[in-house]
Structure formats: structure tokens, C-alpha cells
């Protein structure tokens, strides 16, 4: 088996492999360019790790779905454990503990169960509309607050205060620290030189040990405190429906299940909060750049929903252009462009190539959603690409942005509902356009992107204002109250 060649790819340098050929800011673009040279299946090496890149939907289906029994592990990084994030469902090895987490997520967030969160999701989105009304310049913060509030409510039944909430602050600190710790240059050096983890924190160059001690402390609080909140609310009889309260009250879980529930619920925030907020910000950028598309979606909303009420989930099937706009937002800039790396449990042969045991397997979601054959002029924002010649929507729902096979995203139904509700509600109420300078000229913007668990445009100057003159804050409040 080992005689078969590895898939083609760039020639690695001694020791470092291809580490310095990969763009640190846009690795998905490097991988896509390699795809053009070597084919959709590419092999490269970073230090000691073999990496297999899948640049097409066909390959992700063939390996991550049809051979999912062998492609559903995750690479194990020393830094996950060193920084106290070894419990996290995103990174768990393919085994019994991961299976138990998936079962708990399935109970809370499968398609039918996700319907129960919809009234809560609309109410958080409406709060975002009011916040945008008051201080539109803080739109990025309002989108993050909305996204955080939805996942804290769905997971713990907890209603965070909009600013400086103590539980959200703890969770955000832990996520910030782990994002820095998992930077490839830190994670791969620790993986390649595992003895470094035994260095004492006072040793020159071992400052990461101090960060690790701090991160373990904050992460332990992130796991314990919100869970404790839900348990006390259950005892007091005040618990709102949520993943934790529903599972605790439905089943008499034994201790190991309670620990798994604690760990799975603590994963949800990190997995959910940034990705939905980032998608809202991609939407703002798309509307800023394409007023004509924004107008077309708003005309559809006026026709179907009117101007006397806000859109509801029951309107969704009657708003095909909005649907296409949502799909195009997900396609144009998938906020988790490389998904999460899978890993092989055993070595494999695929189409004559050798794929070693333990190789990291990356599905390049960016390359899939920018495939020129399927999406001509992929960098153009064009919702029309989702319509068939007969004017009906096609069946391409952009499920690829939620990953593949047994490790696909457990929160996809909740995420899809939050994103739709946020986008349609903003379109119904606001117009997003270029801000003007003191001479009345449009202020142009060169988008910049920031990275974290998800990619997002950095906040830029734009004008978010009520779409028509009669829509003042009193009118908006009245429209929101009709939902309560
Ligand atoms: C726009 C929103 C979201 C996007 C784009 C997104 C995307 C993804 C992607 C690409 C993966 C990796 C899939 C793979 O390995 O093939 C993933 C995994 C995961 N997502 Fe999401 N996600 C979103 C929202 C959420 C939400 C709301 C939750 C809430 C619970 C969530 C929980 C998870 C978990 C727990 C995993 C790990 C699954 C596993 O390893 O078995 N995500 N997500």
C-alpha cells in the first residue's frame, strides 16, 4: 500500500515542509491555487503532518461522506489539552465520548427540536433591530450581541445583558485565548516538539505556559458557571426551555452523561456565536456594495409581508428572492472557509493515491463555493444564480458551508433559522448604503477581514437607516409587540 504515490502537491522543504508557502491570512486561496496546478486532490506537509486537501464537492462526498467510517477523526493537538480545551466536541477524537456529545446535540438541535427556538430567535433579532435603530454605527457589536444571546438562550436558557455580561465575558475570554493558542504556528510547533509542554513557565521562551495556566482557569469557569445557572433555575422552577434544562429534566442522567452535557453545551457558544455574527456582517458588506439587489429583496418583502408587520418564519416559502440572497451570502463568503480539519483513522487508497493514517484532511469549502463551473464569476454577488430557467429556486441550499459526513455541523438548523430571521428582518426595516463625506460624496470602502473562529469583514463606515420615513422607533416597537 505504501508503494502507491501520495496525491500530487508542492515540493516540501526539509523539516518545515510547505509551511511558508501557505498564505497565513487566506490559506483557502493558496489551496485553491494548488488545486489549479496539481488537481483537486492535493498533498502537502507542515512540519511532521501530512495534509490532504479536497478542492471539490465530488471529493468531499467520496471521502468524507461515502468513506466517513475512516475520515471522521480530528487531528489531536497538544495545545487543545494544554489550554484546557480537550473537552470540546469540535476537537474530540472519533470515539465514544464524541458519539455521546453528538447524541446530546441531536436531542437539542435536530430539525424538529430546533423549531422550538424560533420565537426566541425572532425576539433576539427584534432586539437587534431596536439596537440598530439607536446606534447603527455599532452594527458589528449589535450583531455579535444578537448571535450570543441566541446561543446562550438555546443552550442554557440564559438571557445575557447586552453589554459586559459576566458569563459572556468569561466565555469570550476563553474563546479569545484558545484562538490565539491554536494559531497554526503555535499548535504545529508544540505538536512537532512535544517536550516543550513540560517546560516550566519561567523558562525563557515558555511564556505560552503562563497563557495555558490562565486559559485552563478561565475555561473551567466557562464550563461550570453557565451550567450551574441552568441547574439552579431548574431547582427554582424558573428554567426557560434550552438544551441543558430539557435534557436534565427529561432524563435522569448519570454523572458521566452530566459531564458530557456540560462539555457539549460549553462547546456550543464557541461553535455558534462568531459564525452567525460573521454571516450577518458579510450580508452588510454585500448590501453595501449592491443596492439594486437590496431593493429587489425589499420589493419582494413589501409585496408579501407589507409594511404593517415584520416578517415571520411562515413567510419564508413566499420569499424566494430573499432565500436566494441568503444562500448567496453563505456562498460568496463562507465564514468557516476551510471547515474544521478531519483526520483519517487508517491509511487508505483513493483513485490510485496513498492517504496515510492520521493525515489531516481539509475540505476547502471556499474552493467549492467558488467553483467557476458551478458558479460562473464566483466573486460576483448574484442571488439570481440560485434560480432555474422556469423561475423556481434550485435545490442548492448551500449545505456545504456546514461541513460533511459524520462530523457535519450539529447546529445547522438553528444557524439557518437565525441567519434567515436576521437578514429578512434587517431588509424589512433598514436600508444599508454608503456613508457620505462632508462634501456629500460616497465614502468607498476596501474591505478588510479579521480572523478568529470564523472570518468576518472588519467593521467599516456605512449608513444603516430606516427604509421609509414613517418607520420611527415607536412604529418599530409597535410592530415588534404584535409578536409577543
Ligand atoms: C453560520 C453558522 C455556522 C456555520 C457556518 C458552521 C459551520 C460548521 C462547520 C464547517 C463545521 C465542521 C464540519 C466538518 O467537520 O465537516 C461545524 C461543526 C460544528 N458546529 Fe457549526 N456552524 C455554524 C453554527 C453552529 C451552531 C449554531 C452550533 C450550535 C450548537 C454549531 C455547533 C457545531 C458543532 C458542535 C460542531 C462539531 C461537530 C463534530 O465535530 O462532530 N455550529 N460547524
UniProtKB/TrEMBL annotation:
Q: Which UniProt keywords apply?
A: Heme, Iron, Metal-binding, Monooxygenase, Oxidoreductase
Q: What GO terms are given for molecular function?
A: heme binding; iron ion binding; monooxygenase activity; oxidoreductase activity, acting on paired donors, with incorporation or reduction of molecular oxygen
Its family remark reads: Belongs to the cytochrome P450 family.
Q: Which PANTHER family match?
A: P450, PUTATIVE (EUROFUNG)-RELATED, P450, PUTATIVE (EUROFUNG)-RELATED-RELATED
Keyword Iron recorded: yes
UniProt organism field: Serpula lacrymans var. lacrymans (strain S7.3) (Dry rot fungus)
Q: Name one Pfam family in it.
A: p450
Which pathway does it take part in? Secondary metabolite biosynthesis
Requisite cofactors: heme
**What is the recorded name of this protein?**
Cytochrome P450
Which InterPro entries does this entry report, sorted A to Z? Answer: Cyt_P450, Cyt_P450_CS, Cyt_P450_E_grp-I, Cyt_P450_sf, Cytochrome_P450_fung
High-level lineage: Eukaryota, Fungi, Dikarya, Basidiomycota, Agaricomycotina
- From which domain of life does this come? Eukaryota
User: Is Oxidoreductase found in the keyword set?
Assistant: yes
- The entry marks the following residues as binding heme, namely 409
Amino acid at each position: 500500500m505504501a508503494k502507491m504515490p501520495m496525491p500530487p502537491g508542492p515540493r516540501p522543504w526539509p523539516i518545515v515542509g510547505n509551511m511558508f508557502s501557505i498564505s497565513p491570512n487566506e490559506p483557502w486561496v493558496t489551496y485553491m491555487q494548488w488545486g489549479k496546478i496539481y488537481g483537486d486532490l492535493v498533498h502537502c506537509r507542515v512540519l511532521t503532518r501530512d495534509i490532504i486537501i479536497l478542492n471539490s464537492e465530488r471529493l468531499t462526498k467520496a471521502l468524507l461522506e461515502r468513506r466517513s467510517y475512516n475520515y471522521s477523526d480530528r487531528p489531536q493537538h497538544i495545545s487543545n489539552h494544554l489550554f484546557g480545551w480537550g473537552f470540546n466536541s469540535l476537537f474530540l477524537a472519533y470515539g465514544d465520548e464524541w458519539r455521546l456529545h453528538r447524541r446530546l446535540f441531536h436531542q437539542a438541535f435536530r430539525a424538529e427540536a430546533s423549531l422550538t427556538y424560533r420565537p426566541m430567535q425572532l425576539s433576539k433579532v427584534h432586539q437587534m433591530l431596536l439596537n440598530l435603530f439607536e446606534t447603527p454605527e455599532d452594527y458589528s457589536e449589535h450583531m455579535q450581541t444578537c448571535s450570543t444571546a441566541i446561543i446562550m438562550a438555546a443552550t442554557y436558557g440564559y438571557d445575557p445583558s447586552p453589554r459586559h455580561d459576566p458569563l459572556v465575558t468569561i466565555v469570550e475570554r476563553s474563546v479569545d485565548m484558545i484562538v490565539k493558542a491554536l494559531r497554526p504556528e503555535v499548535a504545529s510547533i508544540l505538536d512537532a516538539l512535544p517536550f516543550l509542554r513540560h517546560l516550566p513557565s519561567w523558562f525563557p521562551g515558555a511564556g505560552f505556559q503562563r497563557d495555558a495556566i490562565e486559559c485552563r482557569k478561565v475555561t473551567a469557569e466557562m464550563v461550570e458557571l453557565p451550567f450551574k445557572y441552568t441547574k439552579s433555575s431548574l431547582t427554582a422552577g424558573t428554567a426557560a426551555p434550552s438544551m441543558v434544562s430539557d435534557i436534565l429534566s427529561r432524563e435522569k442522567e448519570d454523572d458521566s452523561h452530566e459531564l458530557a452535557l456540560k462539555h457539549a453545551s460549553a462547546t456550543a457558544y464557541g461553535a455558534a456565536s462568531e459564525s452567525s455574527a460573521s454571516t450577518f456582517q458579510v450580508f452588510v458588506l454585500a448590501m453595501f456594495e449592491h443596492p439594486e439587489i437590496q431593493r429587489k429583496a425589499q420589493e419582494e418583502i413589501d409585496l408579501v409581508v407589507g409594511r404593517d408587520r415584520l416578517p415571520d418564519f411562515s413567510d419564508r416559502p413566499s420569499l424566494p428572492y430573499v432565500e436566494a440572497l441568503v444562500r448567496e451570502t453563505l456562498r460568496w463568503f463562507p465564514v468557516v472557509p476551510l471547515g474544521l480539519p478531519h483526520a483519517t483513522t487508517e491509511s487508505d487508497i483513493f483513485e490510485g493515491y496513498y492517504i496515510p493514517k492520521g493525515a489531516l484532511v481539509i475540505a476547502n469549502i471556499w474552493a467549492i463555493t467558488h467553483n467557476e463551473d458551478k458558479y460562473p464569476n464566483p466573486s460576483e454577488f448574484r442571488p439570481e444564480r440560485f434560480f432555474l430557467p422556469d423561475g423556481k429556486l434550485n435545490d442548492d441550499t448551500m449545505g456545504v458551508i456546514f461541513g460533511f459526513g459524520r462530523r457535519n455541523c450539529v447546529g445547522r438548523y438553528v444557524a439557518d433559522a437565525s441567519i434567515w430571521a436576521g437578514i429578512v428582518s434587517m431588509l424589512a426595516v433598514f436600508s444599508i448604503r454608503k456613508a457620505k463625506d462632508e462634501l456629500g460624496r460616497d465614502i468607498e470602502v476596501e474591505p478588510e477581514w479579521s480572523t478568529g473562529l470564523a472570518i468576518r469583514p472588519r467593521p467599516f463606515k456605512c449608513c444603516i437607516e430606516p427604509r421609509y420615513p414613517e418607520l420611527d422607533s415607536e412604529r418599530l416597537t409597535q410592530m415588534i409587540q404584535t409578536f409577543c
